[in-house]
Amino acid sequence: MRQRLVAVVAITPAAGVFGRSHRGGLPQPLVAIADASGALDRYRVTANLSFQETGGKACKITLLKVTTSSSAAPAWSSSSTTEVAISIDARGTAAHTLPTVFDAAAADPAAKWQLDVTASDAEGKVVSIAPCRSR
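^ that's the sequence the OP posted. Answer follows.
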């Protein structure tokens, strides 16, 4: 059996839970937080992540990349990466809270959120995990 990680994401404030098949989204409305420069609105979204190893080999998540974007005019995209050390036992689970801050011109109901995960097993082999996306 090929080693795989499954991720489930809950965005707060409550916007639903999503994984590969859930059609959740970002909280609406997005609430701006203070930005000292005043150039753009800054938003914070917190994701409660839950990972499950399904292939029977322990692994370690080393990088979480969040991309927030919108195709609404004017289109925009913001990405941030966080180095982590989340160990998951064989057939085990792990939880992690990931706050993300991003800039946008305004609160955008068309905004989408995506999580890309980098993980490897004890031998350094890449562990497969599908990106988690809001709809």
